[in-house]
Design brief:
By secondary structure, this protein is of the alpha+beta class. The protein has a single domain, classed as Aminopeptidase (3-Layer(aba) Sandwich), CATH 3.40.630.30. It has 5 helices and 8 strands; from the N terminus they run E-E-H-H-H-E-E-E-H-E-H-E-E. The protein has helices spanning about 20-30, 30-35, 45-60, 110-120, 140-145, and strands spanning about 5, 10-15, 65-70, 75-85, 90-100, 130-135, 150-155, 160-170. It has a 5-stranded antiparallel sheet, with helices on both faces. Strands 6-8-7 form a 3-stranded antiparallel sheet. The N and C termini lie far apart (about 35 Å).
């Protein structure tokens, strides 16, 4: 069993492993799910496999950080991914998520993000966490606001060559 990172009332987040390849391919292969993730493109099996390899290295090199397979505990069902990862563009740590469409609007993003913010502050000793989104991704912007994150305006993401909204929250 992969290492469990955290549990909320409804969600369980654990490290991804090679056995999650098909679930992750279904998630990352959905154009609606991926529209506002990274370059906004679906991933091939080869890209998912490479990503799982990078995650295994991240788990090893930076314990406590990563993207985690996220499950609805009551359904015992893979519903998406939540993450807390280094964001090199701003030398910060970014919180994020993506869920299958049939799980949108259930509050998972807000629940997972709030839990990861507390985890980052309490378990990892972070002083500040950021979140970014495409400016047209109104649903993610609402999640950031519900999580009491502060709108810092627009920044340019050089890696993706796009402008993104930039939200922050500081440890209390």
């Amino acid at each position: 069993m992969s290492k469990v990172i955290l549990e909320t009332e409804r969600l369980l987040m654990r490290e991804f492993n090679a056995g999650d390849e098909d679930d992750l391919l279904r998630l990352n292969g959905d154009p609606d799910v991926m529209r506002y993730v990274g370059p906004g493109q679906v991933q091939t099996r080869e890209q998912v496999q490479a990503g799982l390899g990078r995650l295994a290295k991240l788990y090893q090199d930076h314990p406590g950080y990563g993207s985690w397979a996220t499950f609805d505990k009551a359904l015992d069902e893979f519903v998406g991914a939540c993450l807390l990862v280094p964001y090199p563009e701003a030398n910060e740590v970014e919180v994020g998520y993506r869920f299958f469409k049939d799980h949108w609007g259930k509050g998972y993003a807000t629940e997972g993000t709030k839990a990861l913010i507390q985890y980052g502050f309490k378990e990892l000793g972070l002083n500040r966490i950021i979140a970014i989104a495409y400016p047209e991704n109104k649903a993610s912007i609402r999640v950031m606001q519900k999580c009491d994150m502060k709108d810092e305006g627009i920044i340019h993401n050089d890696q993706l060559d796009i402008d993104v909204v930039y939200y922050t929250i500081d440890a209390e």
